Amino acid sequence: MKALRLLDWKSDPVLVDVAEPRPEPGQVVVRIGGAGACHSDLHLMHDFESGQLPWAPPFTLGHENAGWVHALGEGVTGLRPGQPVAVYGPWGCGTCQRCLQGVDTYCENLAAAPVPGGGGGLGLDGGMAELMLVPHARHAVPLPEGMDPVNAAPLTDAALTPYHAVRRAWPKLPPGSTAVVIGVGGLGHLAVQILKATTAARVIAVDTRAEALALATQEGADLVLAPGEEAAAQIRDYTGGRGAEVVLDCVGTDSTLALGAASARILGDLTIIGLGGGTLPVSFFALPYELSVQTTYWGSRPELIEVLDLAARGLLRAVTTIFPLAEAPEAYRRLAAGELTGRAVITP
Question: For the chain, how many helices (H) and strands (E)?
């Protein structure tokens, strides 16, 4: 079968022929309906060198995946061939406290994980192929009735990641509060929807692209702004001078982090979601008092179930551009050039 594989660091992926996977006991093979192309894949291709991560190429790309159960390993119960499933992307050891809670992202026994700190498309073979081997059946999450795997695939990261960030900030988002989403791309346009679907907060969206701001407005943002010298003042003016209770930075550069800090309210949250490589200087007077600043990585398996429920009820949808597997390299080229709105999905 054909697969889009990253063969080495600092290189572009290539389509090659690989053998079809066969499940061992406890494992599942999924026939892929859709695999999301994520901006973090571009970092994998071009920004890492040997030794920086605890795993290395070659592997098949694609860490946002959904499809249909193709084959079951011995001992697997609760799934059936042909059943539509989403693949929970981060794969931990399965036995530590975090994994037992469904938070494989923060596995504390990485030596026993299938790949330390990674998963399918992140050190092990992902979903940009006809078939994908899932190392444990718990990672195959049944889709709600009627949900198309092509539509579900990007939800496994592009929605799950901001959902986790929003969910942990719910106590700070009562009626009268404001949330800011910086970067209305693959994750950001879903962050806007999640905020509108699960909180009573007003939502401000910030992006450099007019088409992204138009999408944010379409998805319910109450105010859209271009970044710049006046953006923080505009946010403070909109919030009566107080600032935003929650800022979600889906970009993560020096300039966006500075904007987030300048826009946040005392006792607020600034969550760094994007992998832009920026830093935020911290000193006593540099940030609003008791501003909580944190990074997050993906989300939990129970949260993925909640995301899929929101989507099944029509409260959440990924705006997508569809590419066949043969055009996956072009999808990444357009993603890198900023030519895509929403998420690119590869359909093997």
Answer: 10, 18
Question: How does residue 330 score in pLDDT terms, banded at 50, 70 and 90?
Answer: very high
Return left, alpha or beta for 263; rule: phi > 0 is left, psi -120 to 50 is alpha, else beta. Answer: alpha
Q: Which amino acid is at 185?
A: G
Local structure of residue 125 (DSSP, 8 states): -
At residue 123, the 3 state secondary structure works out as strand
Chain mean pLDDT for the chain: 96
Phi and psi angles of residue 340, each rounded to the nearest 5 degrees, phi first: -110, 140
Indicate the SS3 state at residue 6: strand
Q: What is the DSSP letter of 338?
A: T
Residues of the chain with CATH 3.90.180.10: 2-156+299-347
DSSP secondary-structure letter at 129?
B
Question: Is 249 strand, coil or helix?
Answer: strand
Domain over 2-156+299-347 is classified CATH 1.10.10.10: no
**99-128 residue pLDDT tens:** 999 999 999 999 999 999 999 999 999 999
Distance CA 341, CA 293 (A): 28
User: Is pLDDT of 273 > 90?
Assistant: yes
Phi, psi of 227 (to 5 degrees): -70, 160
Give the separation between CA 67 and CA 267, rounded to whole angstroms.
42
Output the DSSP codes for 47-104: T--TTSSS--S-EE---EEEEEEEEE-TT--S--TT-EEEEP-B---SSSHHHHTT-G
**Please, what is the end-to-end C-alpha distance for the chain in angstroms?**
10
Owner of token pair 């406890």: 26
Instruction: Please state the CATH superfamily assignment of the domain spanning residues 160-295 in this structure.
Output: NAD(P)-binding Rossmann-like Domain (3.40.50.720)
